Amino acid sequence: MLKLVIMPPEDDLKRRWAERMQESLPHYRIVLAQSKTEAHREIGDADAVFGWVPPDLLPVAGKLRWLHSPQIAPPAEFYYQALMEHPVVVTNPRGTFNDHIAQHIMMYVLSLARGLPDYMEAQRQRRWAPHARKSRYIDLATSTALIIGVGGIGQETAKLFSAFSMRVIGVDARWEYEVPSVEKHQPEELDTLLPQADFVVVTVPHTPKTEWMWHRARFQLMKPTAYFINIGRGLTTRLDDLVAAIEGGEIAGCALDVFELEPLPEDHKLWTLPNVLLTPHIAAKDAENIPDRQFEILFDNACRFATDRPLRNVVDKSVWY
Questions:
Q1: 268 among known catalytic residues
Q2: Domains delineated in the chain
Q3: Is 281 among the residues known to form the active site?
Q4: The model's pTM
Q5: pLDDT (tens digit per residue) in 169-207
Q6: Residues 6 or more apart whose Cβ sits within 8 Å of residue 72
């Protein structure tokens, strides 16, 4: 019999998943650890774990062969040197909200292209203002989008952009998806591509290579009429540099769902800058089908693990995704 430990903290979703898996997988013993003490006791003979294995528990996990991350891009402490050197295979739930986040990005693009922030401000002031829009109108059919990170979210976003007849340029270190409508490039080409884009869309996770990759020098390579959109991770972008670029007229504005500090402080300048759209890290929040999709990947991998078949969504631990 195989043993899978679900790590703390315990919550209703984990309890439901543990019950469903135990009912359907009689060849597993599913243990829902309610505390770190219980996790320490149970992980010793665990074959698999769902959740985070902290550094002090990894040496205790003598049989561990499979670790499933609850998040596609977990916090930086999830991956540490000992885990990367350990033979355990790590998987994650990527692909479960590609469509939802792509739609959120499309909302940003349409809003900025049409000047919606200015019209919303006029609405709040109860002004009938046909000329409220202060930024340049962007015809999407003649515009260019640059997507940095053409994984699951990026390729779904590219499909929507193509439906609006946009030119789509993509930058990715490993091209896993068939995206015939995208002009493919490698990360080292990024700086030469930035001046071409009307929309720069960032979907990359936070890794040692992507941390603070968006800084003042990069923003200065963009068109003064271009918009920066970050839906990936906040620690890829220096917000002070982004503010300076907008205030200095180096770019036209931005749309952000992720921030280096969350929640964004009340006195931060981004709240009041023109052509700025901010959502509080909710691009895929409350979509009812996401938990079922995530459970399906966990369940399918448990079935694969039990029969020695290749697992889905295997992570390259050296690059954290």
A1: no
A2: 2-95+288-306 (3.40.50.720), 98-278 (3.40.50.720)
A3: yes
A4: 0.92
A5: 999 999 989 899 999 999 999 999 999 999 999 999 999
A6: 92, 93, 94, 96, 205, 321
Q: Which of 189, 262, 296, 309 is catalytic?
A: 262
For 91, residues 6+ apart whose C-beta sits below 8 A from its C-beta are: 66, 67, 68, 69, 297, 301, 311, 312, 313, 314, 315
- Active-site annotation holder among 281, 293, 304, 312: 281
CA torsion angle for 185, 188, 189, 191 (degrees, to 10)?
A: 140
* Catalytic residue (one of 68, 94, 233, 238): 233
Per-residue pLDDT reduced to its tens digit, 246-283:
999 999 999 999 999 999 999 999 999 999 999 999 99
Q: Tokens 């966990």 map to which residue?
A: 298
Q: Is 40 a catalytic residue?
A: no
The angle that helices 98-113 and 116-124 make with each other, rounded to 10 degrees, is: 70
- Whole-angstrom Cα distance, residue 255 to residue 258? 9
